[in-house]
Specification:
mainly alpha; 6 helices; 127 residues
């Protein structure tokens, strides 16, 4: 099933990141005054923070190494049972965002530009 979905996403041009054990580790970056001197060049997290799947996997792996509570979550993400975002939510690193359910009116308004001229006239006569 997973390979079918991957092939489908590739066919329609949707880029996805698969959870793998080869995602690069996050490195600890020291304080500017410490012996592990901080520079923008050695801060490898600068471009990989936020909501990227790569960052989520690396963060879960890092936490799983130091705290066994996160090991099961990390393994479930690698197995494909959880998305990287769902793993971060379950681990408590991200808040679950409430999804806004569209009203029937909002759905209709969104679909109106896609209607043909004949379909629009048919809709007018129905109203």
């Amino acid at each position: 099933m997973k390979s079918f979905l991957l092939a489908l996403c590739m066919a329609i041009g949707i880029g996805i990141v698969m959870a793998t054990a080869t995602t690069p580790d996050l490195k600890d970056v020291g304080h500017p005054d410490s012996s592990n001197s901080y520079t923008k060049e050695n801060d490898i997290t600068i471009n990989r923070r936020g909501t990227s799947d790569e960052y989520a996997i690396a963060k879960l792996r890092k936490e799983a190494k130091s705290d066994k509570r996160f090991e099961a979550i990390y393994q479930r993400v690698l197995a494909g049972e959880l998305s990287p975002n769902a793993g971060m939510v379950e681990a408590g690193f991200r808040k679950k965002r409430a999804s806004k359910k569209q009203t029937p009116f909002e759905i209709i308004v969104k679909q109106l530009p896609k209607l043909t001229t004949d379909e629009r006239s048919q809709l007018r006569s129905m109203l």
